[in-house]
Write a structure and sequence with these properties.
Radius of gyration: 23 Å
CATH class of the domain at 116-260: Alpha Beta
Low-confidence stretches: 420-440
Oligomer: single chain
Structural class: alpha/beta
Strand order of the largest sheet: 5-2-1-9-21-20
CATH topology of the domain at 116-260: FAD/NAD(P)-binding domain
């Protein structure tokens, strides 16, 4: 039996965390490296962005999850490359970290399809900082509109454009519609919810294209019921400081939010491995990198083709199942046992929520819509949160919001685009520090 082999896991998302948990308590020396010190429950990130939840409700300190696992070491650092010849991971602060087995679970970033300049004007939703920036911009738009006397400026401020009608875009558009109703109801004196315009822009022909046609139709109807204007088969031509151009028509907006395509983080470049169009690494049936049996890629950074030729989607359940599978494979090798059969994804279904009491769920054998789908979605997401404190907090926030129709996290600590005030500094002095947002 081999003992004290080092397993390095890069990325503390769903896949990396699942692998680390499965290896906890084993004879392996596990090193989990992540750029942040917390595990983020990304499916609810849009609720932080729309003031329904606070950051601590959907994030847990990674170290606290492994406090009782003496063989797991958590390192907060950024990986910059992999040296497969020397079997080392290169990190910005820690330098070279040797490994016997390497699991890459680095996830994905949003892609602007060759228009990276749009990123300066259309925030994405991947991290807590992203969510808090969006939240500040949304809340500030209402505040600015309240004190403005110009009709055109008020219209610009209260026009919200979401690009991309996948689950994130649909959920974001629905949540902004709910925020407009709750934030403006009785709280502002000069602007009303009738002045709010929410557009969901999709280059394809339907919303939630991964779902069945009848469920896409249900989602489309629910969005329109909420007052969301859905623009299908419309490609974005330009995004700048003034708004967005779609189909040759300019739409003035102070808030354009990008929820469209994604691309894998650069693990493929680190390994000089073959990648798919979205830069995800092509992996073998056991999630290993061809030519590197001791290196694995899981989750959004991997392009895993099943026996029938389909590529697994970039979903949290896929990453979690792959993480557990790779851990099981490594443990089998350490124990000298035969390796498990090729990875097989068990699809438990997909869900998307569209505002209060509206959702769609597809479990293959059962398809739900409306209130029942929303209740199912709520229960599943509560169970998937990593700790009991988060489950209790989210449950209480959702219950309070249901009965009061209010948002619990409508705090604006400083104006978007302006740096936060320095504590103890001279009057008027400031220092830019985006991490200040994370203290809310």
């Amino acid at each position: 039996m081999e003992e004290h082999k080092r397993v390095v896991i890069v990325g503390g998302g769903f896949g990396g965390l699942a692998a680390a948990k499965a290896l906890a308590g084993s004879t392996a020396d596990v090193v989990l490296i992540d750029r942040s010190n917390h595990h983020l429950f990304q499916p609810l990130l849009y609720q932080v962005a729309t003031a329904a939840l606070s950051p601590a409700d959907i994030a847990a300190a990674t170290r606290s999850l492994f406090g009782k696992s003496s063989n797991v070491t958590v390192v907060m650092d950024e990986v910059t490359g992999v040296d497969t010849a020397r079997k080392r991971v290169n990190a910005a602060q820690s330098g070279a970290i040797p490994y016997d087995y390497l699991i890459l679970a680095t996830g994905a970033d949003y892609s602007f399809f060759g228009h990276d300049e749009w990123a300066d004007h259309a925030p994405v939703l991947k991290t807590l900082d992203d969510a808090l920036r969006i939240r500040a911009r949304l809340l500030a738009a209402f505040e600015e509109a309240e004190r403005s006397d110009e009709d055109e400026e008020i219209q610009r401020l209260l026009t919200f454009v979401v690009v991309g009608a996948g689950p994130t875009g649909v959920e974001m558009a629905g949540a902004i519609a709910e925020l407009a109703r709750t934030a403006l109801a009785g709280a502002f004196r000069r602007v009303t919810s009738q002045q709010v315009r929410i557009l969901l822009v999709e280059a394809g022909k339907t919303v939630l294209s991964a779902f069945r046609p009848e469920q896409s139709s249900q989602a489309l109807h629910a969005l329109r019921t909420l007052g969301v204007q859905v623009l299908l088969d419309q490609a974005v031509e330009r995004i700048d400081e003034s708004g967005i151009v779609i189909g040759g028509k300019r739409i003035a907006s102070a808030n354009v939010i990008w929820c469209a395509g994604t691309q894998a983080r650069p693990a493929g470049a680190w390994l000089h491995a073959e990648t798919a169009r979205n830069k995800a690494v092509l992996v073998a049936p056991d999630c290993s990198i061809p030519g590197h049996p001791d290196v694995f890629a899981i989750g959004d950074v991997a392009s895993h083709r099943t026996a029938d030729g389909t590529v697994l989607p970039g979903l949290a359940p896929v990453a979690k199942q792959q993480g557990r599978y790779v851990a099981k494979l490594i443990l089998a090798r350490l124990a000298g046992r035969s390796a498990p059969a090729a990875f097989h994804y068990r699809n438990w279904g997909t869900m998307a929520v569209i505002g209060r009491s509206r959702a769609v769920a597809d479990f293959g054998w059962l398809r739900l819509g409306g209130h029942m789908a929303w209740l199912t979605w709520s229960l599943v997401h509560l169970l998937l949160l990593v700790d009991h404190r988060s489950r209790l907090s989210v449950h209480l926030n959702w219950t309070w919001a249901w009965f009061t129709n209010r948002r619990a996290a409508r705090l604006l600590t400083h104006w978007p685009g302006q740096p936060p005030r320095r504590i103890g500094g001279k009057p008027g002095s400031s220092r830019h520090n985006d991490t200040q947002h994370s203290r809310i």
